Amino acid sequence: MRELMNRLSPGNRLIQGLNPDDRDALLSIATPVEFAPGHVFSEPDDAIEHLHFIDSGLCSSVAVLEDGRTVETVMIGREGVLGVVASVVPHHAHTRSVAQVAGTARRVDAAKFRALSAQRPGVRDAVAEYMARLQGELEQSAACNALHHAGQRFAKWLLRCHDRVEGDTLNLTQEYLASMLGSQRTTVNEAAQGLQKAGAIAYSRGRITVLDRAALERAACECYRRGGDRQP
């Protein structure tokens, strides 16, 4: 695994955007890891000991309520970092960090990363810029969740997944989708059926295939195009 990933350019876009010296310095303290769907990186109140720069796959930060209900707060793929708050100061997790789609990452000890970023302004600035984009996404999501209906939010969520994974098919159960969107399963089913009738997706037994990207974008709310939400 290590030899394979060291031969390949890292898939993480933040790392790819660094200058060669900064990139090599960061990779020198990084460990390649794999993760499976459902893998939990941290739970609420855990000390964040590692940053995970995602190379492939899809992860979420999930708020966990006292009654056991969950809702996704942040989606993270190749553009980002799990546990990024600990890149600045030692910190404890507010949410559960969990993998949605299997993939790989570069794991970096948080304390070592803080020491590295103190010595390398390019690394520090790249992470700061990512955190600013993430803040924009969170602010836009607050308005979206309050004002836009489930069908629009579901289309936006699928587009965000599609941006971050390889291929057009997503293996996500109805129960999981409802949990991520903070909606009832019946609401998710209605939204999925509406998108299927529009020809945007095919939906069956937890498998969603994007058939018409343009139709899916038309169905999504404006929030997909704002707040740093859309990924290149």
From TrEMBL:
Superkingdom, taxonomy of origin: Bacteria
Protein name: Crp/Fnr family transcriptional regulator
Organism of provenance: Brevundimonas nasdae
